[in-house]
Give the backbone structure.
Amino acid sequence: MAKTPETETRRPKNRAKEAAVWVLLAFLILGLGGFGVTNFGGGVSTIGKVGDTEITADEYAVAFRSQLNAFSQQVGQQISSQEALAFGLDQQVLQGLVTRAALDNEATRLGISVGDAVVANDLMQIDAFKGVSGAFDREAYRFTLDRNNQTEGEFEASLRRDITRGLVQGMVSGGFAAPASMTETLYAWIAERRGFSMLRLGEADLTTPIPDPTDDELKAFHSANIATFTRPEAKRITYAALLPEEIAADQPVDEAVLRDLYQSRIDEFVIPERRIVERLVYPDQAAADAARAELDGGSTFEDLVAARGLTLDAIDLGDVSKDDLGDAADAVFAAEEGTVVGPLGSDLGPALFRVVTVLGAEETTFEDARDTLAIEMQTDAARRLIADKVEIVDDLLAGGATLEDLVKDAGLVLSTLDHVPGQQGVAVIEGYPAFRTAADAVQPDDFAQAIVLEDGGLVALRLDEVVPAAPIPFDEARDQVDAAWHADAVAKALAARAIEIKSAIEGGAAIGSFGIVEVTPEIARDGLVANTPDTLLQSVFSLAEGDVQVIEADGFIAVVRLDRIQPAAREGDDATALRTALSAQIEQAIATDAFSAFTSALSTEAGITLDQATIDAVHASLP
């Protein structure tokens, strides 16, 4: 077998025991075929070794599939095994398995293992082996292993190795302490705060208006920035489509059906008077009466709520009708906005009710609702009509019909557009994700297929040609050129104006004398200032107190003065919590690096041997 050089091992996850993780990953891929990746290359069942510890083809297939499924979930679509190889997932899987094998090999060399009692205890904690009572169930254990084509002996041996591996990892990774100087340095940097004043500049802040450009200036700008005024490469697509909104108006409307639809949805059009109400419930009438007395004596409703250990959100009934309030309805609906009534009966006991808002009754007559209902009815009829054509279009295309044939045989409408892959153009059809997906993927020799759109529409398309990128002629792009020239001229003028203002402020002028100043009295490095570039706070935290700086970004220019530097707080609960969190992160990073170095050294010392032919055979067996 070919020898491959050692690669950096994947860092282990921070779990007390890897055992349950690997077990659960195996159970997530039930039905994989019984780990049936065996007999590759004339009976070879291993893909390699670390020292004397083998890495089986079965282990690699399971780990690769698990990684593939996790990656597919991350990107939101199923990735094929060949695509996964292009992303380098095979190398990640190999690194993980080499690390495991190195630990197993070292544990065997040192004679480290765990007893049956430890294995049994961990085995009984695995959820996949528990019955309906929540306790370990031997039948569930046997059934699950049978589904995975494993024997009890094989699984328990694997579990023993997992637990032992965790012990070895714990011996290497445990006991690290974060250096106090490192923790304090990071804390001082993270917890520092800055206060600053900022003057944003816009075109209105220019002392001289931007003059209108001449044709020669625009043409020169067009030539100098021709990349900006170039159409990207596009696919010229012909498509036949039928959209509900385009044929809805042609569908008949039955007045009687419209009136029946109105009556069936009368609750949408006739809304009775309602109230937004808060209800404060008491355990008995005496307590409710005492609360009412406190309220009449000068206490606020909020005081009563707080005394019950509640919040206003907890007692908010929201938007209610009379039917929702039972016996309290008449009194509540007779009260004015802001009034507290009661105690009154409720399904939870005597309560005080506060009327927050009075909502008047609303009624939409049939005449007012008719047009909306008619559009709904016609659109629904259009969708049904189009749905009936899907099978017809499928059959026509399967029989060799062209898109042009669909126009005369199925009533679709033929159009052409230039579609830029990955972009949504201005054409109505490009507003449909299903169309854009198909247009992005279509190739010259593809057969047209019926595509059902998100609103029930129907489209079929073909690629006519690829239109290469080309400059847009000046006359055609004039308006776009004019807007870009103006934006560029404004940006340059504002940059010059900002430098003037900066010099004036440094000379003693008040920053507020140049316009409206935004003052941020205190902010952290990871804070947020609305509608500003990411570089703003980076620049602010690089300044010395009193410094003035011009900050520029696309569509943004401002003059900033650092007013004060607030060192990290030395005392307090927040300071203690942040130091503790930083210390834990540092310790974890040190432990991870130490473990990575340890497993790398183990692998190097023991020697790694991998059989690429068997690995390739595993890849070929996966979909």
In short: The first strand starts at residue 46 and ends at 50. DSSP finds 23 helices and 19 strands in the chain. The longest helix spans residues 573-606.
